[in-house]
């Protein structure tokens, strides 16, 4: 997969099938849409193109209401690479882009920039200044500019509910990470550098932890204890882990720094300063305030035993995509 930051490198395209979206999380619904674009591109002998943006549009349009994202740009691009699409074009979403009319977007980006012959978008797709553009307008413009428009039905899960980034974010926020994984087609993943903690885990509790600060701007699961897969840096291995998310109520209180404290089962080594990835498999319990260190230690032992049993049911998944016990999503 080739990645272009802007339209300049797309001049060599002789024609393309383009799908457009934020693609936060690259969930099963996104994959169905991209799959349809790839199928059509293959049949027509054209390049398949995903057009996305360097940030969520709300960061410019409604900066006070930017949703916590499921993926940063690097992870989004890595996930898009697994879809088999030929080209991903990342546009900067700034004030100029936000003020661009729907007609200007079609003319500048889809026609002159990407030489679109077909455009595949979700049936609820909106674009252009004030979100005035929709699939109907896109079809009108396509009839003039010479491209076909496909309004693809929204994917649903087996219960008939839509598969959307908004819904996945809500599930993660509530700690329902197993349900989120079924819509993502993978485990929700957070990554960051291991930072020094209180060094209490190994010395006082007999269970050393690798501590991560919640990554800024990303969706962090609700406070609680989780079974996770932990990815060591540079492909050095994958370990089962029990992870506590929260403000450590036994020692602190509300308002204390939230941490992701990961105890890697069967691992011995120093991870300070290295980048660790955590993939959230299932929530075990909410955070609790214990009467003393002994009670906390006993709970941690039981948590680790539960996590080991839960993760024994799975083979360690691929470092980024991973295949959880999932649900299929279709139009």
Automatic annotation (TrEMBL):
TM spans (from-to): none
State whether keyword Hydrolase applies: no
Highest rank taxon of the organism:
Bacteria
Q: Key word Metal-binding present in the record?
A: no
Organism in which the protein naturally occurs? Aciditerrimonas ferrireducens
Residue span of region Disordered: 312-331
| SUPFAM superfamilies, per the entry | Nucleotidylyl transferase, Riboflavin kinase-like
One of its Pfam families is: FAD_syn
Membership in a protein family: Belongs to the ribF family.
A GO molecular function assigned to this protein is: riboflavin kinase activity
Under catalytic activity, the entry for this protein gives:
riboflavin + ATP = FMN + ADP + H(+); FMN + ATP + H(+) = FAD + diphosphate
Supply the alphabetized keyword list: ATP-binding, FAD, Flavoprotein, FMN, Kinase, Multifunctional enzyme, Nucleotide-binding, Nucleotidyltransferase, Transferase
> Which pathway does it operate in?
Cofactor biosynthesis; FMN biosynthesis; FMN from riboflavin (ATP route): step 1/1; Cofactor biosynthesis; FAD biosynthesis; FAD from FMN: step 1/1
- What Enzyme Commission number does this protein have? 2.7.1.26, 2.7.7.2
Q: Which InterPro entries match?
A: Cyt_trans-like, FAD_synthase, Riboflavin_kinase, Riboflavin_kinase_bac, Riboflavin_kinase_bac/euk, Riboflavin_kinase_dom_sf, Rossmann-like_a/b/a_fold
Chain ranges of the Riboflavin kinase domain:
183-312
In Swiss-Prot or TrEMBL terms, this protein is called Riboflavin biosynthesis protein
